[in-house]
Amino acid sequence: MAISRIEINNFRCFKKVDVDFQKCHALIGENGCGKTTILEAINLATSSGYAHITEQDFNNSDEGDLSIAVYFDKPFLCKIPDGYTTQDILCQSVVFSAHRRKQAAGGKALSDPFVTEKYAVPILYNSKDDFRGIDLDTLSTKIPDKVLKTDQGYESPRKTTNSVFKFTQQRLSLQNDFINYPNVFYFDRERENEASTGFNTLLSKIIKDLNWRYRNKWIQADVVQKWEDFYSQVIGTVIDPKNDRIMRPLCEKLKDFVGIECDNLELSLLDIEQPFLKSFFSLRDGSNQIDQKNLGSGVSILLAYFLLEIISSLSKGEIVFLIDEPELHLHPQLQTRLFEEFQKSSSQTVYTTQSDCFISIANWASISRFNRGFKNTPDSEKLNEVIEGKKCRSISMRLKNFINIKRYSFVRIIKYSLPANV
Fold first, then answer.
1. E strands within 216-318?
2. Per-residue model confidence (pLDDT) at position 96
C-alpha cells in the first residue's frame, strides 16, 4: 500500500495544493518553498497521536478551516466498535481538519483555541458488486453489503443481524483498529535520534517490544539467581558487601528514621523485569564500546533507516517513509546507493532533496518541483488537459525515452522539457 495523493487547504505556506505521489517520490525546489511542510502534513494526517495545532499552522491569507486529506492506492479496513463486536468499514483516505474555536467550550475558560478532527473516510457503495476486480480477501469477507451517506453521517447493515448500523465521522477515528493501514514514519533532520532512546523513538519502541517478549517468557526463580550472580560479580569489583561504607549506613539510617527494613536496598544496574530499558546501539571491541552517536552522523542516519526497514520486512507490515533531505551527512557515493535502496525497497519513500543523486529525470512523474509561489510542477490539473486529442500526461511520458541525466541539470530539464502548458 502507498500514498497516492495529498490535498492541502490553508496549512502553513499553502493556500491550496495537491500532489500525486509515486512509490519513490522526490520533492525538490528552493529553500522555503514548502517541501518539508508536505512531509509534515502527511505525518500529521496519518498518525493516530494527538495533533498540537498553533495559529502559525493556519495559512495567513485566509480565515478558513485547515484541512489535509491523504489518499491511498488500496483500501483498508476501519474496525468500528459496536457493543461486543466491531463493524468493518472500507476506507481509502484519511482527513485531518482544524478550525478556530468561536467560543469557549461549554462556557469554560482557558479552552483549547482550536477544534481538531482526524478520521478515515468510508468508501460509499450500493452493492459489493461495485468491487469486482478488487481483491478484498486480504481485508475481510464480512464487509457490509452497502455503505451509504446520510444527513447525520453514514449507515450500513450490521454483519450478523442485518439491522441498520449508523455512525458519524467521529466514530471513524484513527484510534480504531485498522487492517492493511500503513505505518508512516517521519525522519526529520534529527533522525539519527531514532536509533537512540527517547520519547517515542524507533529504538524506544523496539525496547518496549523486547522487554515484553522477555517478561512473557521468563522464569522468575532462574532470573533472580542469574541477577544475584551478575550483581555480585560487578559490584564486588568495587564494593565489599560486608563492609560497604555507603549502602550499609544508608540502610541503618532509613531503618532508624522511617522504621522499615532496608537490608535489600541496592544500587541497581538494570531493571530485572525490563533489562533492555537502558539499552543502546554500540560497536563493541572487547570492553570498548562506541555509542552509535559517535559513529558519525551519516552512519547513525543509515542505522535508523535500515533498522526500520528490516523490522517492517519481519512484521510484514506496510511502511511509508517520509524523509527530510536524506543526503544530509552522506558522501555522494552513499547518496547514490541510498537512492538505489529507495527504488528497490518494497516500501514507499517520499522525501525532500537538494541533491541530484536522489532523482531520476527519466521518471519525471516521481518528481514534484515547488517554487517560491508555493505552486508545484507538474500540476495534476494541467496534466489532464487534452492536446490534439491526447492528454498532456501521456505526451509527457515520452520524455523518459530521450532524457540524458548526465548531460543536463535536473532543475533545467524539469523546468523546460515538459510541454509548455504544464
1. 282-285, 288-291
2. 95
> At a CB cut-off of 8 Å and minimum separation 6, what does 405 contact?
356, 360, 361, 362, 413
Q: Are 75 and 128 in contact (CB under 8 A)?
A: no
**Residues 313, 368, 44: CA angle, nearest 5 degrees:** 60
Pairing status of strand 114-122 against strand 85-100? antiparallel
Q: Across-strand partners of 8?
A: 17, 68
131: left (phi over 0), alpha (psi -120 to 50) or beta: alpha
Q: How far apart are CA 173 and CA 410, in angstroms?
A: 41
The helix-helix angle for 202-217 and 297-315 (nearest 10°) equals 50
Q: Tell me which residues of the chain have a pLDDT lower than 70.
A: 61-62, 103-111, 132-141, 191-192, 194-195, 199-200, 241-243, 297, 312-316, 379-422
Selection from 351, 352, 361, 357 nearest residue 330 by Cα:
357
First-to-last alpha carbon distance for the chain, in angstroms, is 28
Strands across the sheet containing 24-29: 183-187, 319-324, 348-352, 24-29, 367-370, 376-377
Tell me if residue 318 falls in helix, strand or coil: coil
Tracing cell 481538531 back to the chain, one arrives at 116
Q: Report the residue count for the chain.
A: 422
Q: How far apart are CA 51 and CA 118, in angstroms?
A: 9
